[in-house]
Amino acid sequence: MNVAPTRQDAKEQGVETPSSVADQANQIVHLSSIVKRPLLDPGGHRLGRIVDLIVRLGEGRAHPPVTGMVAKVGRRELFVPIGLVSAIRPGEVRLSGDTLNLRKFERRPGELLLAGDLKTHHLINLVGARLIRAREIEIACVDGRWEVVGADPSTPSLLSWLLARAGSRGERNDHPNQMVDWASIEPFVSHVPTAHLRIPFRKLAHLHPAQIADLVEAASHDEGEEIIEAVREDAELEADVFEELDSEEQLEFLASRPDVEVGLLLAAMAPDNAADLLVNLDQERRLPLLDALPASQRAKVLALLSYHPETAGGLMSPDFACLPEATSAVKVLEELKNSSAPPEALTVIYGHDSEGKVSCAVPVVGLIQAEPGATLGQLSQADPVMIPADADIHTIVRKMADFNMSVAPVIDSDRHIIGVITVDDVLEHLLPAGWRRDFGMTSNEQ
Prior knowledge:
Helices cover 34% and strands 23% of the residues. By secondary structure, it is an alpha+beta fold. It folds into 2 domains: 1-197, no CATH class; 315-430, CBS-domain (Roll), CATH 3.10.580.10.
């Protein structure tokens, strides 16, 4: 066996696959049928065995290229550039020549091992936002280049397991429709010291915050940290994700963060969610974090903290729309364009009289259908339903159910509106603890 040029030289030629593999185009080969299988010279003589396949991520390709292999020849693990490989078949890998670089294999930045780094860890299937574990990783020769094309999360049948153990050259077909296109997969890579990669924010940004939170809760702590680190690129998205996390996960991922960072996160959250999070933090952290909030946000949070968390005052959002009852429909709609209240709190607009007391409630759809000059008072239902700040959860649920309300106003003793309760706030308190994890088991293993 001859000594080849250095690995750096091999890199230049390794990205091109010899034309002799053209007959393998579109053939899908399972990783398990290659790893621990023979490495052969052109004449079919065994040189060693394949330890793993090397891929490079982060190059903007939907299907990452296989750049080489790790082979054990004698007692040494060597790098085999993909350009020196003439054939990859179930059960064997054949070289185009008998020349190999005898230098010991060492990782380079950005490189990942398919079996060692990815097959034993969770992957994110961005379609449906699920965690999967690759029971099998598939590669194929596409346009003369070997690429990672998919992962199979299905549990292999006993027959396929026996065939694989026996070293069969047959292709597994017990789950023909289970392969997930690698284009929709994002692997966790922070556990690989040389990867220098993280989950791309742009991919997670397409998911709903609740889906991202589900992924975090289903993942291990380190995997969850990697997801959260990715979404930190967008402060608003990070806040939305934390709002969707269960309190246990919130505390887990904030425990090691400095107060300055936690304060910025709280400032980006809705006041009611920020108040809920603060209540769960250690007593010694609350005051410094409150002091770090902007004045307007701090005032809202303090007001919410003055109520029992399971009363209307503790459940409400302090952001809503309440205008003088003489305001015209067209003027109300103009005001809504600039409102910072969450959309779910703006499905109903409230009106108040000259003393500031709630006097009317109008659904947004009623404003859209109304004549431009019609006022809130003219469009309102008679005697709108209101909920006292000290009402308990049972009273709230009964009133909202009886009157078919998706949002309800919360008033103080003087009938001034101080917040609104939306149906999602109520549902979260009615569902049992851990409901998200029980209902949305995102890992394919579960």
